[in-house]
Amino acid sequence: MNYKITGDENITFNNNAFYCIGTGRMGLALQKQYYEQLKLVQEKIGFEHIRGHGLFHNDMAIYREFQPGVPEFGPHAWEGRDEKKVQVEYNWTYLDMVMDSYKELHIKPFIELGFMPKQLASGDNTIFYWKGNTTPPNNYDRWANLIKATLQHLMDRYGTEEVVTWPVEVWNEPNLPGFWKDANMEEYFKLYDVSSRAVKEVDKRFKVGGPAVCGGTDKEWIKAFLEFVRKNKCPLDFVSRHHYTTEFPNYDGHYGYPKLHPKTKCFEQLDSTRGIVDSFKEFKGMDINVTEFNTSYIPNAPLHDMNLNAAYIALMLSTFGDNHKSYSYWTFGDIFEEGGVPYTPFHGGFGLVANGLIPKPTFWTFAFYKKLTKSYEKCVLKTPECIVTKCKDGSFRGIAWNIDDKLSGKEITLNLTLPMETKENVLITELVDEEVCNPLKVWHDMGEPANPSQDELELLRTSAQPFVKTERCKNKVSLNLKENAVCYFEIKAAPIKSDRGYTYGRLN
Amino acid sequence: MNYKITGDENITFNNNAFYCIGTGRMGLALQKQYYEQLKLVQEKIGFEHIRGHGLFHNDMAIYREFQPGVPEFGPHAWEGRDEKKVQVEYNWTYLDMVMDSYKELHIKPFIELGFMPKQLASGDNTIFYWKGNTTPPNNYDRWANLIKATLQHLMDRYGTEEVVTWPVEVWNEPNLPGFWKDANMEEYFKLYDVSSRAVKEVDKRFKVGGPAVCGGTDKEWIKAFLEFVRKNKCPLDFVSRHHYTTEFPNYDGHYGYPKLHPKTKCFEQLDSTRGIVDSFKEFKGMDINVTEFNTSYIPNAPLHDMNLNAAYIALMLSTFGDNHKSYSYWTFGDIFEEGGVPYTPFHGGFGLVANGLIPKPTFWTFAFYKKLTKSYEKCVLKTPECIVTKCKDGSFRGIAWNIDDKLSGKEITLNLTLPMETKENVLITELVDEEVCNPLKVWHDMGEPANPSQDELELLRTSAQPFVKTERCKNKVSLNLKENAVCYFEIKAAPIKSDRGYTYGRLN
Amino acid sequence: MNYKITGDENITFNNNAFYCIGTGRMGLALQKQYYEQLKLVQEKIGFEHIRGHGLFHNDMAIYREFQPGVPEFGPHAWEGRDEKKVQVEYNWTYLDMVMDSYKELHIKPFIELGFMPKQLASGDNTIFYWKGNTTPPNNYDRWANLIKATLQHLMDRYGTEEVVTWPVEVWNEPNLPGFWKDANMEEYFKLYDVSSRAVKEVDKRFKVGGPAVCGGTDKEWIKAFLEFVRKNKCPLDFVSRHHYTTEFPNYDGHYGYPKLHPKTKCFEQLDSTRGIVDSFKEFKGMDINVTEFNTSYIPNAPLHDMNLNAAYIALMLSTFGDNHKSYSYWTFGDIFEEGGVPYTPFHGGFGLVANGLIPKPTFWTFAFYKKLTKSYEKCVLKTPECIVTKCKDGSFRGIAWNIDDKLSGKEITLNLTLPMETKENVLITELVDEEVCNPLKVWHDMGEPANPSQDELELLRTSAQPFVKTERCKNKVSLNLKENAVCYFEIKAAPIKSDRGYTYGRLN
Amino acid sequence: MNYKITGDENITFNNNAFYCIGTGRMGLALQKQYYEQLKLVQEKIGFEHIRGHGLFHNDMAIYREFQPGVPEFGPHAWEGRDEKKVQVEYNWTYLDMVMDSYKELHIKPFIELGFMPKQLASGDNTIFYWKGNTTPPNNYDRWANLIKATLQHLMDRYGTEEVVTWPVEVWNEPNLPGFWKDANMEEYFKLYDVSSRAVKEVDKRFKVGGPAVCGGTDKEWIKAFLEFVRKNKCPLDFVSRHHYTTEFPNYDGHYGYPKLHPKTKCFEQLDSTRGIVDSFKEFKGMDINVTEFNTSYIPNAPLHDMNLNAAYIALMLSTFGDNHKSYSYWTFGDIFEEGGVPYTPFHGGFGLVANGLIPKPTFWTFAFYKKLTKSYEKCVLKTPECIVTKCKDGSFRGIAWNIDDKLSGKEITLNLTLPMETKENVLITELVDEEVCNPLKVWHDMGEPANPSQDELELLRTSAQPFVKTERCKNKVSLNLKENAVCYFEIKAAPIKSDRGYTYGRLN
């Protein structure tokens, strides 16, 4: 493919990939390895917000009921319970530890209200290995109080002006029975009503939204949700939903193998939302936050660890911002227990980083898009295989990819002609492909060790770096992309300014 | 080239490359960047001792004379000096800072006694940009006292048992007029006599040696030195000398371009020493410490930064231990001021690490040899292009190189057949060559920036990692080496132990 | 009190306080704050082993059963279970993370085998907020296999020679129904029999022991246990038990207030064990490891945070080693969930360190005893209020305390005369008492904030340092101890060696 | 002394103590220990700018002349020099290292142009142990070019918008012959003229100033300088001078003992400057930057290490901002070589931090003033013994001191009545006095070790922390200050919010 760039182009490109990133449940944020993985992500990429489940899950230990004179434990626990005498107390110990470490890492929460603390739950339905309770509150007043107390505590500790910039979303995927008892729409709307008003009661400046649905019944839910909100005049600052691009997987042992949607249809299931929202005159143009996206929606899809995933996500990021305020990759790391504790460092987890602090290929897709933001002026080329941007200093930066979802081995050659101002330029490329940056293959070749030694981990980390190459160039760039390659490139003026007496390559 | 290894081989290989490493003058060890470079070297390679000049140089501020009632500074300085009333005091402030940081980094000094503090010097001759004084002491008693006080102080601070394991060498390259006034042999012998006795007076267990000569007049000097020692019954625990493998360089501006000795003659100038030492029955078999070696002996030879250097050193390290107790690469890093402060990160410095914390190709040569020590059982193959060792666990490790000192582009293919116990093995290679690990080229392509930005430094560091590759194999290994490649390889049993349900490469 | 020390004394003092330290359940060792607290403890004190519950608890996720073709989750979970077809797999992911961080912190496990993984449990009895299952295995073969697989995995990863030095203890406090179903003695003996043989099957060099009982029925249990072991010829390398020195507490809200045993009876409940063991000729002199001790046995006794606790423990440590191989303070830190997640940094937790990284007074008791080990020669004085030791260099070190369990305010003055060799000495004291090192009081005065800000935490940490004082002395030392003070002191030769011209205290 | 504060007071207090801090010469900023000391200072205090000598000193290696074809070194160095053919090159290697580390530590330079690089010097006059050349340039064009090249390089590397906020001062103390050859006023004015114009040529936004004089001839110099500037229309953005408050010292060995000015006259020698500047209508109200101040102006005055110094500086800081834009304490740390390398950690150096990373009492004076800036609303009391400020949240903060320059032992009691809103308050005090925070005394009592061990250093650091004390209070505060105490205090609302069931001090 050949492209000639004049520099006069100006193509739509909203690079919002760094607004938010997903995470395993909040209780896991106490872990050391979680912190280290997030630290790596923040150093090399840098996200603004982080969103995950489990703020109110039991392991965070926030909510607690008691009644003076009534035993809380033991064989006579709660004998003599009198609802009118029950009191509630809150425990912020773990919440503060988590939020303190987010602050250290320069990332802010995107608050998801959920799941239900056991003492406040109306039933026993749970989801995941870690048993998040997915039933409505047994007492909506106490639920509202919990929300208000939590936000107020955060404002007390981190400053009101700061905390009101943290978006708040009500629950997660209520259109799935697994996540919300019976996927009961009316009950969710009630939850939304109570929750959104509670949030605004604390401070009107909070941005609150929902319904956080996943694909499938998304159309019905979003339409009904907006109608409910309109009718009941609930607060609403943004619409949220999720987006995954694979079919239902085939399962085997601890793993699942889903079929990827064709790359040309990577946004197909998502496309209706903008229209629905805009069809309400009250909500026309309202922000849509895709609060989760990835290829597969299961935490054990080997696909996530593959170069194919990196290339596919590269395509998505090039146009995702066209219609959506934000899109949050699910997730930053592999400390994650929804399907249980992983047995091996590579296990198809959602993370950009594998356990053992190994960046996966998709990590670099994000790191490469981040580089486009530096000194960004405008986008000058966008194709299904690449994006090229112009910087304020006259240089060009771009990313190219070759999605090969059949693993067929086909290659792509990309030829660019660029309007460089001088003839003394350097082309810098950073390449991620199945040969040069494929830690999954290295791990496989090693015998797929479940518990790599420190030496093996170091080797895996070294093998997981992009391959850097430079060459002197004038105004033409030719990139050869092997299967599932993602390649960052940068062309800039680089006159050779040798020091006195220095001749590169001279021997004697 | 084809080799079949049976496993019954047992070839001489004394891998002593990590006994000692060279350094810029001791005063530079106070610097933060020096510390960081040494830290990197210790983490990835790990040397036991460190040797450099300038222990007694003025910037260490150890030696100071004064006389009560006589001004030390100003227009009347030292008016009324009376030698009998002059007193000496010692200042250990900087010495302790240096030694404390060595201790933190788990490296011990190889003490070189020199150069002459200004107040103790008999003349004004100096060497280097930093003006090390190279004249004999004006008072040999005070010189002996300085040595004794220094060793005693070190023992008080770091423990006697520890400090007596630090070797002591008397002066540096006295056979050059630049390093020792008039290259006066008699005077050096006197210095050696006084110094070696002073050392033993502190503790007999110290190992002391000399004459630390460089090539040229080495034969005459070593012979005469041993005769002197024998005759005068001086203490002597080892003989020391230096070894460089280039001709006198062509100079241009800040740089020098020396011709490298043919690889077949890389030890030619060194070979006579063993014979001379062994010709003295008193000294037969005595340890020879090559207390400096490198290709070029100038700190501004671009050769040091090149892949050619890495390949050439790889050859040297394979046989250097055959005749020598130790051999100390000159130097670990590029914080070094002998020729002045470098203008650019790559400037042909001696260091394994360039300024900006960038490992050079030769860094990896040492790191690769270090890997051979892990679980080492014996050497099974040694050729001018490779070395292969067997580990206690039945695996094999090796290093191969392709010295191309004409930059002709010729390639080498190495085919090995190995006595593997099973058919399920992995071959791991870590490659350093002009394409995959050549930060000098990357820096050149960038325009040879004298002051790279933090982003540019990070790119340089990423480009300076070996290229890791793995493949499944049975018992045959084929390595293709491009010009000036150095390749570490490891073959070991690696049965695939997939987790339940995991199939590598499966899509759906 | 006045004591004159001649230097000829030689008093029994086995300072084994650092052999082992207790910890919250193993799953908590994944946490970042846990790591930081343990790091502080290791840096300032330094223990050899660490012991806690929960190695096999569900959150470690080690043990998992499955049966091919039978669903593990969902409404039809385990339908068609056929015991003969059930297979077991092990997951070492979290175990390795924990053990890797122990290794980083230079501490080794003291392995406690327990509690029961849910799938291997014979019942639903649990203990603690975190619901450790306390029932016997439903299958003793699988239990034995779990032990063997675990030890084997540890040996594979950390080296056989290393791992066999980790002691192994069977279960925890089986003489309490809370910890072991029905406190069934016969069943425990069976568990011990199977477990101890499994351990030795892996490697005979492992040291294995029990019965890890607490006070109360300890006499009966230990006697019966030893008879069982003798009769059945079980492996047994040490006897273990626990020791706490308070009565049953009064409870109020989240807290409990126990009465402390009088200091003169601090070992009363423990004293019978040595006699019982020695009454068996086969076990006479066998090591007794007190694998838990503290004042109170509840994790919410404000006593633990008080200076009184520090003084009381100081007394215990002075004689604990007389009859016991080791004694393990329960616990190092306050990341601990037995009674739920603490609401406030000071909450009467067992830890030496409060959450927020604040050392408690008792932390310093251990730090002070550690200082006695440095250059230790012998003990020259031991009273109920102090201990004094002589160092190899002729200096003296000691600890003095003033246990005031009525908070009566009484003071103690200790006068020592020491056989110093010269008259120019320094006395260094490090004092911990209710005025100078009492972070609990500082926190109380601040209003008992549940969630101190970073500034408040820094203040708390600063307030939690011992008060250092020095004075010039000859051979007499006088120490005044306020209520519940613990004072470390050191007297050593310190001739004033002023630098030339320096006069301390001179103004002009 | 008794004071009643109503809260309606509003007293002038410009707390500018953190605008700038002094440093040893720039070449020392390469040192690791320098970095660590500055890091401690920045973490606990935090200054905005840093100013020191030696930007152009030889050890920074910035300026270099050469002439093609003419040897630069050796016996024939510069033979054939032809001024018209001489070229200049600049070396930014070390400058960048220094500036990069300043950036890491969040401190910006206050640029001092000086001293003279050897090749640009017109004579041999030098100052200090490190021999800074103090002669005018031999070529003013090259001097101007050096300034322009340096500023341009800094802007290229650190950003134009950033670098133009770095003030520029021309030379240092030209009114002393030691610092400027013959203290030649005309020559300095020429230097200022050329330099200030060079600065503005690079960017008009730079703030440039002088004449950086010390006391003595300051009146004559400042007046003549302003006349010169007015007449020649030189750029001038601020007037700068220095201020020290001691007499000429008595010397003995390595030390000097100066008499301190009475505290009531601590600004006496400085007071004329404001009037002189304001007497020029063109310069009326112009910023006066006191670019150096301290008690003694010698780097070996034991006074600097004493509590007296801390108390005296506390007084100065309370009113220094009344007439001066900024005042820069000379210096942050004791890596400093003007009088040679110090022999001992305490040696009367200027630093806030002693070598070994020990904060001196004066360090806390600055740390305490920094605390006043947090949530500062206004000053409500200022006396010769204390300052009290009100915070936006209704709490009060203050500092009190007791200067006892006779070491007479007199004490001061300060009684304050404050308009607290509630009765439940806490008083927090942090005390530095000769008993509780006096590392100099601890070091003396230890025998004044020149080279303390790591254990001794740790003890010294622990002894160098302020003594923290809290007490519950209503609206009255009583502080007792022993000789040379400096006490920070804070009174704020602190209602006791005990957790459920918690009773402080309850035993059982």
Automatic annotation (TrEMBL), chains A, B, C, D:
<comment type="similarity">
    <text>Belongs to the glycosyl hydrolase 39 family.</text>
</comment>
<dbReference type="InterPro" id="IPR051923">
    <property type="entry name" value="Glycosyl_Hydrolase_39"/>
</dbReference>
<dbReference type="Pfam" id="PF01229">
    <property type="entry name" value="Glyco_hydro_39"/>
</dbReference>
<dbReference type="InterPro" id="IPR049166">
    <property type="entry name" value="GH39_cat"/>
</dbReference>
<keyword id="KW-0378">Hydrolase</keyword>
<dbReference type="GO" id="GO:0004553">
    <property type="term" value="F:hydrolase activity, hydrolyzing O-glycosyl compounds"/>
</dbReference>
<dbReference type="InterPro" id="IPR017853">
    <property type="entry name" value="GH"/>
</dbReference>
<feature type="active site" description="Proton donor">
    <location>
        <position position="173"/>
    </location>
</feature>
<protein>
    <submittedName>
        <fullName>Xylan 1,4-beta-xylosidase</fullName>
    </submittedName>
</protein>
<dbReference type="InterPro" id="IPR000514">
    <property type="entry name" value="Glyco_hydro_39"/>
</dbReference>
<feature type="domain" description="Glycosyl hydrolases family 39 N-terminal catalytic">
    <location>
        <begin position="17"/>
        <end position="473"/>
    </location>
</feature>
<keyword id="KW-0326">Glycosidase</keyword>
<dbReference type="GO" id="GO:0005975">
    <property type="term" value="P:carbohydrate metabolic process"/>
</dbReference>
